[in-house]
């Protein structure tokens, strides 16, 4: 992930929960699905999990609530600091640290049962950094352990080429907010996403604008990168099958 994307997430961290209708409910809902998948693949008991694209902790917090030992890392210092605050507020002991997913050497341990990179983190990466991230994640998961990642459905998006997502209206009258995205396709596969969060303040509205860079990475490219890095049994689960809100990829560490 490039520093420009860290600059996207650093200021976004303070308002990130506003992207959800109910952030706490989303944490619980995602954790239920992810915990079920992890336990189905790795068995019952406490798992040691590295969330290497933890953001402000949406998935890390939920998995820790399920009883797992979770470590979180992210390139965004702002997101990591927010995740630490949220863990303290909830009484959860989760070590969070700043680390680029393409080089996880800052994460001391290398024997995790599972490594996760969720909520469209991998499509921030160009081709070679994506391969580097796959190798870095493989180095952190034990033999027989699991990789679990999710992306938007870019196989569909690269055909449909959407230019807007939303708007979504959240909150009660007088405390409303509007969340929407404008997708600027800068070439055949690269997208500059303009994220707008508009919050009702008294009789007026205040809008914030954030810009992030993504690549419409096809599932076949991610599969190849994982296999080249030493993962096997790579398979994709679509939302209607998994219950997760994005396509998920699972793979075993050889």
List keywords for this structure.
254 residues; Rossmann fold; four-stranded antiparallel beta sheet; seven-stranded mixed beta sheet; 11 strands; N-terminal domain of TfIIb
Describe what this molecule looks like in 3D.
The structure is a single chain. The chain has 254 residues and is of the alpha/beta class. It folds into 2 domains: 3-152 and 217-253, Vaccinia Virus protein VP39 (Rossmann fold, 3-Layer(aba) Sandwich); 156-214, N-terminal domain of TfIIb (Single Sheet). The chain has 8 helices and 11 strands. The protein has helices at residues 3-12, 23-42, 58-65, 77-89, 127-140, 154-160, 219-229, 239-242, and strands at 48-51, 69-74, 96-98, 112-117, 141-150, 164-170, 177-185, 190-201, 204-215, 231-237, 248-253. The strands form 2 sheets. A 7-stranded mixed beta sheet has the order 3-2-1-4-5-11-10, sandwiched between helices. A 4-stranded antiparallel beta sheet has the order 6-7-8-9. Helix 4 (77-89) links the parallel strand 2 and strand 3 (96-98). Helix 2 (23-42) packs across helix 3.
Going by helix content, strand content and strand pairing, the class is alpha/beta
Radius of gyration: 18 Å
Number of spatially distinct domains: 2
Q: Find the CATH superfamily of the largest domain.
A: Vaccinia Virus protein VP39
CATH topology of the largest domain: Rossmann fold
How does CATH name the architecture of the largest domain? 3-Layer(aba) Sandwich
Residue share in helix: 25-40%
CATH class of the largest domain: Alpha Beta
Based on CA inertia axes, which overall geometry fits? Answer: globular
**What multimeric state do the chains show?**
single chain
Tally of individual helices: 8
Number of strands: 11
